Amino acid sequence: MKNKLIFSTLLLSSTAQAGISAVDAEHHIGEFQTVCGYVADVVPGRHQTFINFDRNYPNQTFTVYINQNGYGNLHKFKSKHVCADGVITMHQSTPEIVNPDSIYIQ
Fold first, then answer.
1. What sign has the CA pseudo-torsion 14, 19, 20, 21?
2. C-beta of residue 39 within 8 angstroms of C-beta of residue 63
3. Which residues contact 43 (CB under 8 A, 6 or more apart)?
4. Looking at the chain, which runs of residues are DSSP E strands?
5. 58 preceded by cis ω (within 30°)?
6. 4-37 confidence digits (pLDDT tens)
7. pLDDT digits 0-9 by tens, 40-57
8. With 0-12 CB in 10 A as exposed, 13-18 as middle and 19+ as buried, what is 58?
9. Fewer CB atoms < 10 Å away: N or C end of the chain?
10. Are 74 and 42 in contact (CB under 8 A)?
11. How far apart are alpha carbons 64 and 75 in whole angstroms?
């Protein structure tokens, strides 16, 4: 019985962290979700950074837009499988999360 409980807990933990794919984010506008996918490019600006999933701008499937400090070195996410937590919005036909609650390499 104890082994079944441990397995169930591990299964629930891995499922909860899996999130939705960057491609599926467009179907979850307005929802708080964990969105995961391959980071194709990290584009820093003067006061913001764009993290583009699957393909480079302007063909990305999803964007994480960060307009504040405190996230550390964001270039470490390039070419990695990354997850971001936050409310999904739509900007110019591309789903995005602005200033995610968390962003991490999976």
1. negative
2. no
3. 49, 50, 51, 52, 57
4. 20-21, 32-44, 49-53, 62-66, 81-91, 94-98, 102-105
5. yes
6. 433 333 333 344 457 999 999 999 999 999 999 9
7. 999 998 889 999 999 999
8. exposed
9. N
10. yes
11. 13
SS3 state of residue 11: helix
Ramachandran sector of residue 14 (left: φ over 0; alpha: ψ -120 to 50; beta: rest): alpha
DSSP 86: E
Residues 6 or more apart from 60 whose CB is under 8 A from it? 40, 41, 52, 53, 54, 94
